[in-house]
């Protein structure tokens, strides 16, 4: 039948790369057939719940669990004392620090885990939590990292050496007992010299507030220790199941082959589900002790107050330029608030992640970055909330600094960007802070974006609006937010990037069945990104079998090849590459089989969409389906039966997606209410696998960007109480707040990726946050505003307007 189809029709029938294939996952999700951790119910399963500290800094004087243990249905109450003999009262963090599993003599943040109650059901566990009596002795609280660096109060006595000395931390020398590390990149003296000699220097403190990834599904697990065969099965909301298996093995002493980690369906991760939490350790211990499965699933408040936060970077910046606007230097000192333990999820050599991408899309010849990590009485974390290891902070920093420099130069901010962009012919581009950007065409993207929104027309309208405002004809100002961002996604390479010593490669294993369908297993795990749809598309194009005939499986460490998981938009750059490479191995073997069947030399056949054809004789061919069958059916001299391949891919470089965004916003000066009139997002993620999924990723990322820029915040009072611990206070946008997004693209393939693809999941978040923020700031530029901090909620905007004297 295939013979009658044209080449294009055969390609279309595969549903391969470039087509808007519908998400195969959605039939399950939209019909309530998803299988999340909380859906897992094992025979005899118990439930765990935490007693948590109401104080942000306190000594634990005593814990009395007798009343809780007396409650019918309570099986056990674990404290640090119970875990200590097993060496499990503390656990290693991803950042080389250690963290208390259960409070060991003191607590360092509100909501910290103090005791773990195990009971027959969730309600009994919750009641028992109330009955555990803990006596605390309050200690002085430090919520400000600058004050923490000056304070006599010691947060981490466990890190003091003899006589109060300060041994080195995981990332080198420490300056103060509340200091974690200093990380420096670039040329300090040269940058300071450039700043001194510059025509113009713009200086600003840019604070990126603390926020939280807040996935719809909170974190949780079900630990099940089978004492008969010695096997531990751990279902959990893990973004990196293999890494969790290795960590559990290392800290529990259970051999790795006896641990099976399964990430079932995951309801959003955004970085929140990368790290290891005390709930996992306590559930495992409780299951080992009781001999039955134990489930722990946190509630919304626990998720917001205690699991990994994002951002909290104070970025002091200086940027210099000539009178004409050519940037000459960039200097940045960041004070990073890491909370009570350093549990940041970054590759080992990068304690501040990829913050050194902060030169952005610009050709900046000289730069210097220093980051100081500091302990405070806040929750630990520091994860990449929909970004690649602090790239969001970097993009926000440089895109605000560019706007402030434009004010200083009295220049149009779009033009300032244009004259400083790295030029197309400069790629691969070596940045002053150490990265090699793989490819880009920033001018084309920028021109396309400005044309699409009629940028000159918008500026004219804005100028008129300012006149009308001054004349009392309107109370609404208009802001034009601009952003051109460059992302860095796809960690590895292994030589630079590891987490806890595990190199950041990824993997794909393919098995072609005799009838020409297939299963591919990967080391990644989808949390809503649609991997089951898109990875099958890569394979369809690479091996010539229909995407609908290829099952994608992730998240089970007993079956999937070892991989470092999904976060930092690494799935496409790393596992996507592994998939293409494994597909090519299949193709190479298929070529030999085809040549044998067609009775020609291997070199005389070539791949053509879904078949191998004899060169120069296209009527002689074998389809991939026929080849698959032959692989299992015929004895082919010199070739093993079967058609399988595995690829472990260590990327030679990161990929550098980029984008040009414009936001048009009206602001009511009297209420502080913002209205987004237009949002145009042009993304370049290289080769596009599924344009529909990309569009969905962009919509989602922009919506989370809107949330962060306009209100989403984890705020603390001076006592270290979390003020935004519920969704009543923590802004999670709904359809009501979300504007219409206009999406667009250019395509600049990555030269080193097998299919030229770069990541995209995080780009809209990375570019969106500065774009929304720049729109707010820009609205007030004509009235003398240089910079106002996020989040730009109505109250803060009202105060900004008031501070500028706009309320009369
Ligand atoms: O690692 P994560 O899956 O979060 O991010 P990603 O690699 O950026 O991919 C997000 C989704 O977009 C996946 O389903 C990808 O296959 C898809 N994608 C695409 O269709 N084309 C690209 N060039 C990049 C990603």
From TrEMBL:
Give the top-rank taxon of the lineage listed in the UniProt record for this protein.
Bacteria
**InterPro entries, sorted:** Ald_Oxase/Xan_DH_a/b, Ald_Oxase/Xan_DH_a/b_sf, Ald_Oxase/xanthine_DH-like, AldOxase/xan_DH_MoCoBD1, AldOxase/xan_DH_MoCoBD2, AldOxase/xan_DH_Mopterin-bd_sf, CO_Mo_DH_lsu
MF GO annotations: anaerobic carbon-monoxide dehydrogenase activity; carbon-monoxide oxygenase activity; copper ion binding; iron ion binding; molybdenum ion binding
Sorted alphabetically, which Pfam families does this protein's record hold? Answer: Ald_Xan_dh_C, MoCoBD_1, MoCoBD_2
Supply the enzyme class, top level: oxidoreductase
The Aldehyde oxidase/xanthine dehydrogenase a/b hammerhead domain covers 31-140
Repressor as a keyword of this entry, yes or no, is no
- EC assignment: the record states 1.2.5.3
Q: Which UniProt keywords apply?
A: Copper, Metal-binding, Molybdenum, Oxidoreductase
Catalysed reactions, as listed in the record: CO + a quinone + H2O = a quinol + CO2
List required co-factors. Mo-molybdopterin cytosine dinucleotide; Cu(+)
Report quaternary structure and partners: Dimer of heterotrimers. Each heterotrimer consists of a large, a medium and a small subunit.
- Write out the function statement from the record: Catalyzes the oxidation of carbon monoxide to carbon dioxide.
- PANTHER family reported for this sequence: ALDEHYDE OXIDASE 1-RELATED, XANTHINE DEHYDROGENASE
Return the protein name. Answer: Carbon monoxide dehydrogenase large chain
State the organism named in the record: Shimia isoporae
């Amino acid at each position: 039948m295939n013979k009658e189809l044209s080449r294009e029709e055969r390609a279309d029938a595969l549903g391969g790369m470039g087509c808007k294939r519908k998400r195969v996952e959605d039939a399950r999700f939209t019909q309530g057939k998803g299988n999340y951790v909380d859906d897992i119910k094992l025979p005899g399963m118990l439930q765990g719940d935490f007693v948590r500290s109401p104080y942000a800094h306190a000594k634990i004087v005593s814990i009395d669990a007798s009343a809780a243990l007396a409650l019918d249905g309570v099986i056990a109450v674990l404290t640090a004392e119970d875990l200590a003999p097993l060496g499990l009262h503390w656990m290693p963090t991803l950042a080389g620090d250690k963290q208390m599993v259960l409070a060991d003599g003191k607590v360092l943040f509100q909501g910290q885990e103090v005791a773990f109650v195990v009971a027959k059901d969730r309600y009994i566990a919750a009641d028992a939590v109330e009955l555990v009596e803990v006596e605390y002795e309050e200690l002085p609280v430090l919520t400000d990292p600058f004050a923490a660096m000056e304070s006599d109060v010691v947060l981490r006595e466990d890190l003091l050496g003899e006589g109060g000395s300060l041994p080195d931390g995981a990332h080198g020398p420490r300056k103060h007992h509340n200091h974690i590390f200093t990380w420096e990149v670039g040329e300090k003296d040269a940058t300071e010299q450039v700043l001194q000699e510059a025509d113009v220097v713009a200086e600003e403190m840019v604070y990126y507030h603390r926020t939280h990834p807040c996935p719809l599904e909170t974190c949780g697990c079900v630990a099940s220790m089978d004492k008969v065969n010695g096997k531990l099965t751990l279902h959990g909301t893990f973004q990196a199941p293999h890494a969790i298996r290795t960590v559990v093995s290392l800290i529990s002493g259970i051999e790795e082959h006896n641990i099976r980690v399964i990430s079932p369906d995951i309801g959003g991760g955004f970085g929140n589900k990368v790290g290891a939490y005390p709930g996992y350790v306590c559930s495992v211990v409780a299951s080992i002790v009781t001999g039955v499965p134990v489930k722990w699933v946190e509630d919304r408040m626990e998720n917001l107050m205690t699991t990994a936060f994002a951002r909290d970077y104070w970025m002091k910046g200086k940027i210099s330029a000539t009178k004409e606007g050519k940037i000459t230097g960039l200097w940045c000192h960041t004070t990073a608030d890491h909370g009570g333990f350093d549990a940041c999820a970054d590759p080992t050599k990068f304690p501040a992640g990829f913050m050194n991408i902060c030169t952005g899309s610009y050709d900046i010849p000289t730069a210097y970055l220093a980051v100081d990590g500091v302990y405070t009485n806040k929750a630990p974390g520091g994860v990449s909330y929909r970004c690649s290891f602090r790239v969001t902070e970097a993009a926000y920093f440089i895109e605000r600094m560019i706007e402030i420099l434009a004010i200083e130069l009295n220049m149009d901010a779009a033009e300032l960007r244009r004259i400083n962009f790295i030029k197309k012919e400069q790629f691969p581009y070596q940045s002053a802070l150490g990265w090699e950007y793989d490819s880009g065409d920033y001018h084309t993207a920028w021109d396309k974006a400005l044309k699409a929104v009629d940028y000159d027309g918008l500026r004219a309208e804005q100028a008129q609006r300012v006149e009308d405002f001054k004349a009392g004809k309107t109370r609404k100002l208009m802001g034009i937010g601009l952003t051109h961002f460059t992302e860095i996604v796809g960690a590895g390479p292994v030589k630079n990037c590891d987490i806890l010593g595990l190199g950041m490669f990824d993997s794909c294993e393919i098995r072609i069945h005799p009838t020409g369908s297939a299963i591919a297993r990967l080391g990644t795990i989808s949390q809503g990104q649609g991997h089951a749809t898109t990875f099958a598309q890569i394979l369809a194009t690479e091996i010539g079998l229909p995407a609908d005939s290829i099952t994608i499986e992730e998240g089970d460490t007993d079956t999937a090849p070892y991989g470092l998981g999904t976060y930092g938009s690494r799935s496409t750059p790393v596992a996507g590459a592994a998939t293409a490479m494994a597909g090519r191995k299949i193709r190479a073997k298929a070529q030999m089989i085809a040549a044998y069947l067609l009775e020609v030399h291997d070199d005389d056949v070539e791949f053509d969409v879904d078949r191998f054809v004899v060169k120069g004789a296209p009527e002689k061919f074998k389809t991939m389906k026929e080849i698959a069958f032959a692989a299992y059916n015929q004895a082919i001299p010199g070739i093993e039966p079967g058609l399988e391949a595995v690829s472990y891919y260590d990327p030679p470089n990161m990929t550098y997606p980029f984008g040009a965004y414009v936001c048009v916003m009206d602001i009511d000066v009297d209420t502080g209410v913002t209205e987004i009139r237009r949002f145009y997002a042009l993304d370049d993620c290289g080769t596009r696998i599924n344009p529909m999924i990309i569009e969905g990723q962009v919509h989602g990322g922009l919506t989370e960007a809107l949330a962060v820029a306009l209100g989403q915040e984890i705020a603390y009072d001076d006592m270290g109480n979390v003020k935004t611990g519920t969704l009543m206070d923590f802004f999670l946008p709904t359809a009501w707040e979300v504007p219409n997004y206009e999406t667009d693209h250019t395509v600049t393939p990555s030269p080193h990726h097998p299919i030229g693809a770069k990541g995209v999941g995080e780009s809209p978040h990375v570019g969106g946050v500065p774009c929304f923020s720049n729109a707010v700031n820009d609205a007030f530029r004509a009235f003398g505003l240089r910079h106002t901090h996020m989040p730009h909620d109505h109250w803060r905007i009202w105060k900004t307007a008031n501070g500028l004297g706009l309320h009369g």
